């Protein structure tokens, strides 16, 4: 019989963490270990260390983080850098002290410079100035990558890092004020349809291009990278450049995104773009050649993913109105 592997998913209630849990649940040789925030404060160093000593963990998916949109990052920069650094420091170091050999750290595409060449390769890390609005969060994530690399170099651990593009899907944040573009638009078009509105106004010109990945694809990629043979992983990474981009490698204009969301929701009114509103960066696309060379590609196309995300929102929308 195969040994039952005890796998700790930190951040299991979040969008990515919950998707990882759903996929790991299909493996009968995996025992999933989770803790709510009330059960384990990940910013408490001693509590995290005691947890690892007690639970005898084999693998860790580090999906726990303090996250938020531009407004939250601008308003609470100290919270973002402190809490994220503390959470990842506690988990990575405690995992090492307790003999955990395998860990996967989930980062963010915001680690790359604001003006990084498109598509963004892993080599763009630390080559330029970060986007100021989320710099504290990005620096914490960069520190997490370098921490994993450092434990690998000094202690021969197998701590890997994946950097996702813009994610969306089930368990996303659909708050009307601080959600990201896809959940915000899904909710806006849904409510416009219910209200019988004749038009919906979208911010910007619609010309910027963005890449999106459905969260179940992100979970699948995370599990795939975690379980790659070490020899295969090392052939396709570098000791000081060990993180791997995760995305579709396909981008869309915001206009295409908005029109697809209107179609999925069933909104039949007019769509107008307010070009007086800011567009942001003209393009943000991840280069995913390294991940593809390791044998993984995304499988859920944008329209299908939007349909799944919208269904989940409709089925759970009462939760967002409390």
Automatic annotation (TrEMBL):
Binding site for NADP(+): 11-17, 106-109, 141, 164-167, 180
Ranges for domain NAD-dependent epimerase/dehydratase: 7-230
GO biological process, one term: 'de novo' GDP-L-fucose biosynthetic process
Class of enzymatic activity (EC top level): oxidoreductase
Keyword Oxidoreductase attached: yes
Keywords assigned: Isomerase, Multifunctional enzyme, NADP, Oxidoreductase
EC number, as in UniProt: 1.1.1.271
InterPro entries, sorted: Epimerase_deHydtase, GDP_fucose/colitose_synth, NAD(P)-bd_dom_sf
Sample GO molecular function, one term: GDP-L-fucose synthase activity
Residue numbers marked as site, Important for catalytic activity: 108, 110
Pathway involvement of the protein, from the record: Nucleotide-sugar biosynthesis; GDP-L-fucose biosynthesis via de novo pathway; GDP-L-fucose from GDP-alpha-D-mannose: step 2/2
Binding site for substrate: 188, 203, 210, 279
Chemical reaction(s) catalysed: GDP-beta-L-fucose + NADP(+) = GDP-4-dehydro-alpha-D-rhamnose + NADPH + H(+)
Active site: 137 (proton donor/acceptor)
CDD domains per record: GDP_FS_SDR_e
Function: Catalyzes the two-step NADP-dependent conversion of GDP-4-dehydro-6-deoxy-D-mannose to GDP-fucose, involving an epimerase and a reductase reaction.
Family: Belongs to the NAD(P)-dependent epimerase/dehydratase family. Fucose synthase subfamily.
Protein name listed in UniProt: GDP-L-fucose synthase
Gene name of the record: fcl
